[in-house]
Each structure stands twice: as C-alpha cells, then as structure tokens.
Amino acid sequence: MRIGELARVTGTTTRALRYYEEQGLLQPARTANGYRAYDANAVRVVENIRLFMAAGLTTDDLRLLNGCLRAEPVGPHSCSDPTPKIEVFEQRLAVLQQRIDELVAVRDQLVGRLSELR
Fold it and tell me: Does the pTM exceed 0.85?
C-alpha cells in the first residue's frame, strides 16, 4: 500500500508516517518510481508506535524497542530481549510519575487559591 492508504487505515497523517520513517521506526520499500510501498505489517507497526507514544515514550525510546513495534499483540512477552525494554519503561515511568507529582502540586495550589477567593 502507498503512504496515503496507510495514513487512512491507521488514522494518522502522511506527515507523521514520514516522521516515523525519518526516526527509523518505519521502513517502507520503494517502488521503481520512488513511491513508498508498505506491507500489511506496517499497519501494526504504526498502531504500536502511536500506542507507545500516547503512553509517553519518545521516538528515542521506541528505537530501543524497535522489535516490539512489529509484535502482535504488544505485551510483556512480545519482545525477544526484555532487559533494555524494562529499563526504558522504568525510566519513562519515573518521568511520568514526576510529571504527575508536579501536576498534583499545581492542582492543589489552584484548589487552595480558589478556596481563598470564595
């Protein structure tokens, strides 16, 4: 399939697909006239990229998890060597927890300020 069809099937944009390719996460074949050609597996890869990115992972993280992007379903047993994956997830979890703590502090300040204003 070509890039427009993959974008439509996965609910993303051609720009995002090109970005994933630039980041080394998606590797399309090229036709004789230079068009990108994706196989059926590309749908799963794009869905997994979007799933992991929505969970807070970065494209740098995803490059470390590249084998996991092709796995179906994504889960703890879908990657061949879990060690580097565990470290990536632990690091990302720590970053997310820090963000959550910061947001809770901001929320508490806003609640306090709102109480003062009332």
Answer: no
